[in-house]
Amino acid sequence: METNDNIRTNKAHKTLGSFSSEIFVKCPHCNAKAKVFIKLGKYTIPYPFDTKSIFRCDNCYKPIDEKLWYGPIIIAAVNKRCGYCGTALSYEEKVDKYKDKIEVKCNGCKQEKRYDVSYSLTYPNSYQATDPNFGLPLWLQYPINGKIFWAYNYEHLDHLRKYVSAKLREEQFVSKYSITQILPNFVKLAKNREKILKTIDRLQKVDFKPEQ
Question: How many angstroms separate the CA atoms of 20 and 70, rounded?
Fold first, then answer.
């Protein structure tokens, strides 16, 4: 994959929210490419909120319950301390379905006890590629060296291509919310440039399908 030494990128003006109005996902019914359309609210920094999300699959046309979360969640004990000795509890786990209680072994007294749980949603990162609205698997994702490279849509993918291809990455204004500021290191490393560009080529093919 050839790169242009004179290519420059400006990292200041694009946030992840800039690419979130249309997200390609895997349909939970037929596994075909579906879309999540998001009507963004007034504010998108640091993350979009006050949004309205709509799911649509043009293959099977089956709907989802748009009030539900379909992705993994992280659960932890509601109790912050052991019910026997008062030692702080640090246990949490990622699950794919609801649990009303979890059993936690205290690191202090070593006794086990069942606790009610609290839930937090999981969002896309280097190890999980899901959409931030319903938790559905992203369509544009591919593993690289034990991590996951992903994009919301082709516009997002094209932006990443320009960034990865560039030898000179200029930044006129520093913004901690810029999409390229929050990219994982494996995407930024020059040694991974060729591998990532080949991955982008693969994702842009019309017949691309994510691994099952």
Answer: 18
| Percent of the chain whose pLDDT exceeds 70 | 83
- Residue 16 near residue 123 (C-beta atoms within 8 A): no
Using the Cα atoms of residue 180, residue 156, residue 139 and residue 3 in order, give the sign of their dihedral.
Answer: negative
Residue 90: exposed, middle, or buried by beta-carbon count in 10 A (0-12, 13-18, 19+)?
exposed
Instruction: Say if residue 54's pLDDT is above 60.
Output: yes
pLDDT digits 0-9 by tens, 180-197: 788 999 999 999 999 999
Ranges of each domain in the chain: 8-70+124-204, 73-121
Strands 8-10 and 168-170: parallel
